Sequence to fold (145 residues):
Amino acid sequence: MALTEEKLEKIETLLSTERNDWSKKIQGLVKDISEPNKLAKAQTYMLSYRHMIVDKIMELRILLSKKKANDSNFTKTRYQYYKTNHDVRLDHREIMEYIKSDMSLRNRETGLIEHQIEYYKQAIETLDKMGFAIKNRVILATNDI
Fold:
């Protein structure tokens, strides 16, 4: 299955949609934290979301490691092709330039996955900070009693 510009755009759209969905969920939690009667619900969802995102990160890391292995194999086969079967004799530098061009879509796909992982890490950081905010809010509420 060859990677095309259209497939890459679909992946990009899918990942963007996922980021938007998670942003909405997290924003909903922020609103819930401001209401004392929703703190328990917010804490439960926060922990659940955190776990779900950790699972997503692991899935993407596994995908990324498989992809990098495939990319490495692709680079090797392209090098062999340009060295032995290409119509024009190329030196090492030229071969590497051709391979760099052949790898451009694959590298963009890798970048998209890496950016998604980074987004998820930031989302976990935000959720962790929310946990501290909830804890502080509960402490303040019990001190008021």
Summary: Helices lie at 5-33, 39-84, 92-102, 104-144. The chain has a mean pLDDT of 93.
